[in-house]
Amino acid sequence: MKEDLQVYCMNTQDYIDIDGGDTLLEIYDTLSTRIPFKPVCALVNNKVEELNYHVYANKMVEFMPVNSSHGIRVYVHSLCMLLYKAIEDLYPGKRLRIEHSISGGFYCKIKHNNEILCPDAIAKIKQRMSEIVEQDIKFVRRERLTTDVIEMFSKQGLADKVRLLSSNNSLYTTYYKLDNIIDSYYGPLVPSTGYLKAFDLIPYKEGMLLLGPDKNNIDVPRQTIPMEKMYKAFTDYVKFYDIVRLDDVGTLNKVISEKKAPLLINVAEALHDKMFSRIADDITRRYHEGGARVVLIAGPSSSGKTTSSKRLAIQLVTNYIIPKVISLDNYFVDRAHTPRDENGDYDYESLYALDLEQFNKDLKALIAGEEVAMPTYNFETGEREYRGDTLKLGENNILLMEGIHGLNPELTKEIPEEMKFRVYVSALTTLSIDDHNWVSTSDNRLLRRIVRDYKYRGASAQSSIARWPSVRRGEEKWIFPYQENADAMFNSSLLFELAVMKDFAEPILKQVPTNVPEYAEANRLLRFLSYFKSLDTSNIPSTSLLREFLGGSSFTY
Fold first, then answer.
1. How far is CA 157 from CA 152, 160, 248, 398, 478, in A?
2. Which of 122, 176, 450, 495 has the most crowded Cβ, counting Cβ within 10 A?
3. Domains of the chain (ranges plus CATH)?
4. Percent of all residues in the chain with a pLDDT value above 90, rounded to a whole number
5. pLDDT at 94 over 80
6. The 3-state secondary structure of 223-271, one letter per residue
7. Residues 478-506: pLDDT tens digits?
8. Residue 489 contacts residue 229 (beta carbons within 8 Å)
9. Beta strand pairing status for 48-49 and 95-102?
């Protein structure tokens, strides 16, 4: 043992003597009786590493379980390589594409002459995956010159990865070997296939759904969640990407390098215009049929709800309908009556932070044509005030409200269903890094939030990252369960946006200190952004939804 070589284990809160070159897995084995779970990865000096990582110097180590945010990502990426291996064993040469997350899992397709796998074929793939798990084959991490890895991927028929690496300036590239195949992921994998016992693979639409472990019971796979409307929203965007022949980052980087991005920006923005126009036409039709007096716009954090409501309002005006805007924030109950979360803090994201009784009373009066005194919430005193503001709906007026609870039936429980039109807004990212690495919708929104909060609220990336788990818990409770209630879904993502976000987000993320827990997420996001070539903002219009986060918008927020 090298003298004075130790790691500080955050799980046990003490120093552990080690030999130079010990792997994290070997270190864990000496502590297994003191750590009440089997880890799948670890934080080493607040950076996510695989368990086969060798320790040669004093480090701070925290072992991570499957149901942690880092652990589930490592598990799912490993599961994807397992799926790829099974398909290569049974159907060599067929192209696996993992498109996006939906219904509690990950939607996968075989891209081979528009082939749709039959249920029997999917069952065989699942069986082969189970066999590979039982064989407990090692995932072997390797690093070689990028030029060599490109050649290796080319021989294996992974043209998407060749495009990506060819557009990147990295000298070396990390990849993983599993028996006779190689693959790459933007993060570590588990030590071996034996770790991947909890999974499922089921037929889903035109492909299959890969399900990882349930966070509440890691020994069983997640159950599916019906998301018919969400699936259609994703599918519409995938079709659009197919038409413009841009479905991965390597292709986007080529477009940017060849200075063809302005056309791409114009087409993407035109698609948003068309979508807003269609939603406005649907609302107008419902309005003239005697319904749709209240338009509710909802969506998770940083989905672009505010700009969406403003652009939708413009489209409604072109249909001769004038929206009147109500802010849900003005219906907060007095602070003394605000619910508290599990930490004892005021929970302003709770539905019951709103005065539902007064809100519904005012809505009914407005729909009936009455003039209503409108409240204002004083955030300094924590009390609702009336300052003489009134509202009355005239001919061709419609109410428009934006807030996280818009799709929750309880919010407007006293308003007849036919009088409501609900719009769900989210950044449903369908651009992939490559065939086996999708872009997380949550990551897209987090980057938007980091940039916006830094620019407009003086918040650091560290504080934005620290708050994100709480934001996500609120979304899981108050937003996602109701998204299928939407009459229309608007996908606020723009296929070029992460290339634009890169230059804004990277300097902010680099400010996160290495000695804080948030560094792990900042480091992961920086690695993710490194795949993109930069794109400047010069060709992005002032009405673009992206301007809500970057600045330069013609709208007032």
1. 9, 9, 16, 55, 44
2. 450
3. 6-64 (3.10.20.30), 70-228 (3.30.980.10), 243-290+415-550 (no CATH)
4. 88
5. yes
6. CCCCCHHHHHHHHHHHHHHHHHCCCEHHHHHHHHHCCCHHHHHHHHHHH
7. 999 999 999 999 999 999 999 999 999 99
8. yes
9. unpaired
